[in-house]
Every structure is written in C-alpha cells, then in structure tokens.
Design brief:
Helices cover 71% and strands 2% of the residues. It has 207 residues and is mainly α. Strands 1-2 form a two-stranded antiparallel ribbon. Strand 1 and strand 2 form a beta hairpin. The longest helix has 19 residues. The N and C termini lie far apart (61 Å).
Length: 207
C-alpha cells in the first residue's frame, strides 16, 4: 500500500495486481477478507493518483475486482463499480468509464448512485464528442429528476447541443421543458426567453 509520510501517500507499486490467493495464504476467509483488502488497496491507488495520475488505472482495476468479489447484487459492489468509473474518467479512460456508468444508470435508475451515474453519462458522452447521445442523457436526467438543479443546466446544454446539430424541434422541446421547471423564477424564465432567440431560428423561436 501507499507509504505514509508527513506529506501523505507518496508511492504505490504501479504494477501490483489483485492477488486472489493472498487471504488464503494468511488463513483468512476469502469471502470476508478479499473485498476489504482490495478496497483498501484501491483507495491507496486513488490517493497516490493525486501525485501520479498513472495510478488511476490500478485504482480502477482494484475497484472492479472488489465488484467481482462482492457480486452484482451487493450494494457495495455497485459502489465499487462507480468508484472504478471515476478512476477511469479521472485517468482519461472515458470509454471504460462510460460503459460502467451506462450500466449503473440503467440498473439503479431510482437510486442516488444511478442518478450520479446518469449525470456522468452525459458528461462522458460529451467528452467523446457524441453530441446527440450526450443530449439524450441530459434530457433523460431532467425527466427522471426534474427537481434537481443540475436538470436546469442539463436542459440548457441539451438545447444547445440539439441546436448545434440543427435538431431545432428537439432544442425547442428542451427549452419548453426548461421553462416549466423555471416557472417560479422570473429571472430564469428570462434566460430561457433569450436562449430561444440565441439557439433557434426565427420560425422556431416564436411562442
């Protein structure tokens, strides 16, 4: 694990891989010890990545190993997968992060973890220049969680993306939804009004 000195963790062996036999050699029940050992090791790599971003790959690998050990139905297994996705994303491996987050967002759609995963899906698709798919994720998030503040900004992003793709009907629909969410805020309603003028051709911008 990381060496702890006054300045914090400074080194983790970069090529250390999850060792399935370590708990057995110590005479510890594997089904109890292994996930915890892997979790601690993953956290070590995540802390080390603050000083050396190359450690994010090992961080993701160890959190994924935790998820395999615990199984798909274990609550902490889903948490481990979400942590693996964050390590992938922070390490620049957006594709693997997106694959995990899409699965979590669908399987845990009504849970806090699923909400966070769906928010990440929009961000990751945008990073991969998948503009239409990013807009769809932002729209889905706003539909599922209309009371979240991030739904407002998400719909504005979605409208901008749809406009850029010349999908003006869908951009207008996003702004219509945004207007209903912002009905209690005159200032925000004014922003939606001006967004219509900025993002939509004249024939689409009229009420």
């Amino acid at each position: 694990s990381a060496a702890i000195v006054a300045g914090g963790p400074v080194a983790v062996t970069p090529d250390a891989a999850p060792d399935d036999e370590a708990p057995r050699r110590r005479g510890v029940a594997r089904d109890v010890a292994e996930p915890e050992l892997l979790w601690r090791r993953a956290v070590d790599f995540r802390e080390a990545a603050a000083f050396d971003p190359s450690q994010y790959a090992a961080c993701a690998a160890h959190f994924e190993a935790v998820a395999r050990e615990l199984g798909p139905e274990h609550p902490r297994g889903a948490e481990a997968l979400f942590s693996a996705a964050r390590c992938h994303e922070q390490g620049g491996a957006v594709g693997p992060a997106l694959q995990i987050d899409e699965a979590l967002a669908e399987k845990h759609r009504d849970a806090v973890l699923g909400r966070s995963a769906l928010e990440a899906v929009g961000r990751e698709r945008l990073a991969l220049l998948r503009f239409a798919d990013a807009a769809e994720a932002l729209e889905t998030y706003a539909a599922r969680f209309p009371n979240e503040r991030s739904s407002h900004s998400g719909l504005r992003w979605a409208a901008a993306l749809r406009s850029g793709l010349e999908q003006y009907d869908r951009a207008r629909a996003d702004l219509d939804r945004l207007e209903t969410l912002s009905a209690s805020s005159p200032a925000f309603a004014a922003e939606v009004f001006w967004s219509r003028r900025a993002l939509l051709p004249a024939e689409y911008a009229t009420d």
